[in-house]
Specification:
1 helix; 25 strands; Jelly Rolls; mainly beta; seven-stranded antiparallel β-sheet
Length: 280
């Protein structure tokens, strides 16, 4: 059965970090709406003043942060001693687990610096797991054409292809899909998963009758079924398709820390303030 578009949501401009201009797709006010996904931000500007201040040192616990770069470069550094760069086409899947301090600092870029950050909740049993990174260079992400669709598969499986992001609790699918004009296809998806698409170029259809176009800067939540329809008419489109296993657990969320109870949340901030946040 083909999933239906239950609802759509347009982005809202926000300031985050030290003054970075972002488009918030969804976040705190809609916690649980796309369980296990907590937040999606779309950043993009050809003016370095909009992003160069970056995201100085800050904590995370209980979640995973996913940074997918379309174009540009971000320096990252953390409390475990890791340093590196996320470059155009790369994806970084960071599991904060029991706690990590890190910073993400964009570099000035010729042209439009753009990408996404997605927050993924961790199940209660793994909230305090050991922090880890999966830094995946662009050339390691499978890119292929299937029945007219151009697909980059960062996580999950599609036909003979497997995304390079491994061993994630919510069994995610993370695809960057481009559809040229005049193409319609249907792909299979786990019927038990939460599924959404976020269009960031052009306009596409995710209802089989192709009556309701989803334009750039719009998210569509897709429900009830084991297939996703996607298509275009007169113009091409590009979008993220993200899916994952819902946790169905309580959410206690404040800023960069997401736990299951208020007591766990208070404990996390107390440990941060007293210098006991990082676990050995």
């Amino acid at each position: 059965m083909i999933r239906k578009v239950e609802s759509t949501l347009s982005t809202t401009p926000v300031l985050e970090g030290a003054g970075v201009k972002l488009q918030r797709v969804f976040g705190y006010p809609r916690q649980g709406w796309l369980d296990p996904f907590l937040m999606l931000d779309h950043f993009g500007s050809d003016n370095p003043a909009d992003y160069i201040a970056g995201f100085p040192w800050h904590p995370h616990r209980g979640i995973e942060t996913v940074t997918y770069m379309l174009a540009g470069e971000v320096d990252h550094e953390d409390s475990m001693g890791n340093k590196g760069k996320i470059k155009s086409g790369d994806i970084q899947w960071m599991t904060a687990g029991s706690g990590i301090l890190h910073q993400e600092m964009p570099r000035s870029f010729e042209g439009t610096m753009s990408g996404f950050q997605l927050w993924v909740n961790l199940p209660a049993a793994h909230k305090m797991m050991k922090p880890r990174y999966q830094d995946i260079a662009s050339h390691l992400i499978p890119e292929f054409v299937w029945k007219g669709l151009k697909i980059r598969l960062a996580a999950g499986k599609f036909g003979e292809y497997t995304g390079p992001v491994k061993d994630i609790m919510v069994k995610p699918v993370f695809m960057d899909i481009t559809i040229p004009a005049g193409v319609q296809q249907t792909i299979e998806i786990d019927p038990a998963h939460t599924v959404f698409v976020y269009v960031f170029e052009g306009s596409g259809y995710f209802d089989q009758m192709m009556k309701n176009p989803i334009g750039s800067g719009t998210l569509a939540k897709l429900v009830s079924g084991d297939q996703v329809f996607m298509g275009t008419d007169q113009s091409a489109t590009r979008f993220l398709l993200v899916a994952g296993k819902p946790l169905n657990e309580p959410i206690a969320w404040r800023g960069p820390i997401v736990m299951n109870t208020k007591e766990e949340l208070y404990q996390a901030f107390e440990e941060y303030q007293t210098g006991n946040f990082i676990k050995k």
